[in-house]
Specification:
2 domains; about 375 residues; three-stranded antiparallel β-sheet; alpha/beta; formyl-coa transferase, domain 3; six-stranded parallel β-sheet
Length: about 375
């Protein structure tokens, strides 16, 4: 058994945030019934990168049952009601107000089904001047200020993954799990909302407090840390980039003595502590790169590792896929899809005695007939 075996989730979902949340529930053993509009979740058409399937859709939708319903049709709307009558959790990320217009608002649902957990995900929430504003990941990254922090001093940049969607999906997941745990004690479900703005804003807590109370404006620092030095990338003699991080004065001493072979730098007033090192980052970078220019990237990394200095190599996504740590820990599994098996990583939460479910990625409407038969009028009384 997996932790959520026996839990049924009905999700009226699209794009990334809600599908990402419900995929985690499916991996934990829940039955997730994905309700798609005629034509399907538009994320199915974002790209064709995964052997003809959308990489976004493959990532966020394994382990689900796909049922196509036209909720403007009375019969399909009635079928959704029967699904909800037997559900433990309902998740939706429709436009603000759309769920209420369909009779699927939290109050209406829980009045009839008091044990139901209802999760709503939106861009900006159900009130305020941005209530009806369309929200997609990059746009929310802009509104939270993330894009202003990412990139080089000359050019802002989008974070390289769907951070606003992922943040909202993870908070929706934790909300569902908390609500299910509460229901075990009280017998009652509950309703909650997550916005992409709030979720990503929470992840930006450190720069938020720095901007709120700090003396200097925040700046973009590329792949360098905005307030710690040395922390970032430094050129090696073979043209590669060495990434390292000095987090304490003890690390600084080890770097000077064992890597740079410059113990005189330890008490250099320019580098006495992190604030002064950061203030003189340009000079410190020159010192590091002068030393690393005599080494290959591999030699520099070996010296850092031997000295106990945190370090990393800059990998491409292809190199991450071949990461030796993933292979050593047996993190890859095969996931069935409409185009055949595809590779997938195990979820980060790893139970010692069992794998996550990691079920198949459904074709559009693959389970519609079976769901109609299972939840046909009269079936719920059997």
């Amino acid at each position: 058994m997996l932790p959520l075996d026996g839990v049924t989730v009905v999700s009226l979902e699209q794009a990334v945030a809600a599908p990402f949340a419900t995929r985690q529930l499916a991996d934990l053993g829940a039955r997730v019934i994905k309700v798609e509009r005629p034509g399907g979740d538009f994320a199915r058409d974002y790209d064709r990168a995964a052997k003809g399937l959308s990489a976004y859709f493959v990532w966020c939708n394994r382990g689900k049952e796909s049922v196509v319903l036209d909720l403007k049709a009375d019969a399909d709307r009635a079928l959704l009601d029967r699904l909800l009558d037997q559900a433990d959790v309902f998740v939706q990320n429709l436009a603000p107000g759309a769920a209420e217009r369909l009779g699927l608002g939290a109050e209406a649902l829980r009045a009839r089904r008091p044990r139901l957990v209802v999760a709503g995900i939106s861009g900006y929430g159900d009130r305020g001047p941005y209530r009806d504003k369309k929200a997609f990941d990059l746009l929310v990254q802009c509104e939270t200020g993330l894009v202003s922090l990412t990139g080089t001093p000359q050019q802002p940049a989008r974070a390289g993954a769907s951070m606003a969607d992922i943040a909202a999906g993870m908070y929706a997941l934790s909300g569902v799990l908390a609500a299910l745990y509460e229901r075990e004690r009280t017998g009652q479900g509950s309703a909650f909302d997550v916005t992409m703005l709030d979720a990503l804003g929470e992840w930006l807590g450190q720069p938020f407090y720095t901007a709120l109370y700090g003396d200097a404006p925040l700046t973009r620092s590329g792949a360098r840390h905005p307030s710690i030095s040395p922390y970032g990338h430094y050129a090696a003699g073979d043209g590669g980039q060495v990434f390292l991080s000095v987090q304490s004065d003890r690390d600084w001493v080890a770097l000077c003595e064992q890597v740079l072979e410059r113990p005189d730098l330890i008490r250099d007033p320019r580098f006495a502590d992190n604030p002064t090192r950061f203030a003189h980052d340009t000079e410190l970078t020159a010192v590091l790169e002068e030393h690393f220019s005599r080494l290959t990237t591999e030699q520099a990394l070996e010296r850092l590792e031997a000295a106990g200095i945190a370090n990393a190599r800059l990998r491409t996504m292809a190199e991450f896929i071949d990461h030796p740590q993933l292979a050593a820990r047996d993190r890859w599994r095969s996931v069935d899809t409409p185009v055949g098996p595809l590779r997938g990583l195990l979820p980060p939460v790893t139970f010692r005695d069992r794998d996550a479910a990691m079920g198949a990625v459904p074709a559009l409407g693959e389970h519609t007939a079976a769901i109609r038969a299972e939840f046909a009028v009269g079936q719920e009384e059997k």
